[in-house]
# Entry
Amino acid sequence: MRLSVVVPCFNEENGLASLHEVLADVLPSVAPDFEILLVDDGSTDGTLAKMRALAASDPRVRFVALSRNFGKESAMLAGLSEAKGDAVAIMDADLQHPPELLRRMIGLLETGYDQVVARRDRKGDGRMRSLISKTYYRTMNRLVDVRLRDGEGDFRVLTRRAVDALLSLREYNRFSKGLFAWIGFDTAVIDYQNVQRQAGSSKWTFGKLLNYGIDGVVSFNNRPLRLAIYLGLLVTLLAFGYAGYVVVDVLASGVDAPGYATLMVGVAGLGGLQLLFLGVMGEYVGRIYYESKRRPHFLVKETSDTRVSVVAGAERE
# Structure
C-alpha cells in the first residue's frame, strides 16, 4: 500500500524542517512506500523555498504551490487531487497532529475502515474556548444533516475510495468537516491528547473561526431559513395578540397616553429581526452566486513534478 501524507502549509517556513525530520523518521515504519505532499497556500515567507529544497534533497517529498492564498479548504482539496497513494493522510504542518498516531490509524484502515479520524481532547484550551466549542457542536448537530463531533478535525487517513468520493463533490463552498461526515463509509475514531505548536503561531483568528462556524451552519442545511419562517410566524401571532389587547384596553378604559417606549421597542425589535433575516437570506443567495460562477477552487503556479508555472483547478471531467 502506498501512503500519501498531505500537509497544507501557510507561512510555515520555520517548522518545515522539523516536520520533514519527524515524518522521515516515522513513516518508514508505517508504510514502506510513501510520499509527503506539501501544499503551499500562497505563503508570504520562505515556505515555498523550503519546499523546493526538501523536494530536491528527498525524492519522497513533493510539493504543490498555489498561485495565492485560497484558504485551507482549497489547499486540502489541492493535496487530495494530487495525492497518488492508495491511502491518504491529512495533517497540519505544526506537529500538533502527532505523526506517531499514523501507525494506529493505518492499522485500523487495513481492517476494513475507509476513514480513521484522530480526535483530540481540550487539554490546554481555555475554559471559554472549550465552552464555546462544545456549545457550537451541540447547536450544529441540531441544525445540520450530518453528525459532527467536538475534537474531530482534518487529521485523518482515508482510503482511495473515500478520497475519490470527496473529489466527486464539486461544490464551491466547501466545509470539509461536514463533507467528511457526509460521504459516510465505515469510520473509526482514536483519541489523543492535545499537543502545542512546535513553531510559528496559529493562523486562526476569532473572525476566521466565526466565519468558519457560519460556513458550517449554512453549508449543509436550510434550517436557518425555516427558522426565520417560524420566528416570523411567532412574531406575527404576538403582534395580533398585542393588537387585541390594545383594542380591549381602549374599549374598557378609553384612550390613554401613547406608549412611546413600547412603540420604540417594537420598531427596534422588528427592525433587528428583519435585518437578521435579510442577512440569512443574503448568505444563501451569496453562496448560490459563487456556485453559479463555477470558478476553480484553486490555481497552481508550480509543482515539484513540473517545476514550471501551470494553471489547474480542482474539477475533473
The chain has ten helices and eight strands. Confidence is low (pLDDT under 50) at residues 308-317. The radius of gyration is 25 Å. Strands lie at 2-9, 33-40, 61-66, 87-90, 115-120, 152-159, 187-192, 300-303.
